[in-house]
Amino acid sequence: MAVIGGIMVPHPPLIVPEVGRGQEILIKDTIKAYQEAAGMAAELKPDTIVVISPHAVMYADYFHVSPGKKARGDFGQFMAPQAGEEAVYDEAFVRELDRLCGEDDFPMGTEGEREKELDHGTLVPLHFIHQHYRDYKLVRIGGSGLSFAHHYRAGRYIAIAAENLGRRVFIVASGDLSHKLRGDGPYGYSVQGPEYDERIMDVMGKAEFGELLAFSESFCEKAGECGHRGFTMMAGAMDGKAVMPRRLTYEGPFGVGYGICTFRVTGDDDGRRFLETYESCRKKCFRQGRGFLYPSTGAALCGGASGPYRRCAGMLRRKSYRTR
Known about the structure:
Low-confidence stretches: 296-324
Order of helices and strands: EHHEEEEHEHEHEHHHEEH
Structural class: alpha/beta
Radius of gyration: 18 Å
CATH topology: Protocatechuate 4,5-dioxygenase, Chain B
CATH architecture: 3-Layer(aba) Sandwich
Number of helices: 9
CATH class: Alpha Beta
Largest sheet: 6 strands, mixed
Mean pLDDT: 90
């Protein structure tokens, strides 16, 4: 067994009726698509659901995996403490992931726990999944300030752990798109906002995961997105796999982009080992003393991190678990 599928979903708290109090009707297409995506998760009957959330514990130089037996969270910070979700963690999966990364000295594991309650980037997907399916255990992972390539590698460790344990694993990449679509939106307007959303929906709608590495980090930062690293980690978890994608919906009535796509793994495909292509092109072009382009797009690549920032909802952090 291994990674069997995944979804790209947003996490607006107002999509939960107790929070939205009627405003959720303005994103009815997103709600409909979310139900379909959650239904697909239930159909595949995973043993483990891995939620990648930009609102989980996040460090500059480390991917934090939530430890413990179980966790709960609610929407109290959004004036709806009566709405919440609870899940049991897959402790064996977390141990295996921690072991694999420790052996390779890859910066991912359970150190530095600070926020035990489930964050809204996790709660919103679970709100929909629990309407269809509950027979699973959860793994919750935060992003980091490391490069997109590091996030892709982190996803590959998720896939290895799944294979080693014989788990059927489903990935939830929770992330809003640009927060800068409109001048009257909460974060204002940036020309890169609509550009990012159009481009990411095209890439994810076709499962052209290699192109996720072709986005420059400065462009993503100017666009004000909060999901790109999670999308890239999910792509890494499907490295070397044939994938059947479906683009379900996109809308952004509040100045923040909400996109939903689903991905079914249908078999193996060695032609989809995108990180190897990325690194091969990078080394070749750097040896020649020039910049390099991703083969399928001609887009300039940026391999370095833009900084240890947590941009979603306007939050910035520069803390490392090593300096606690």
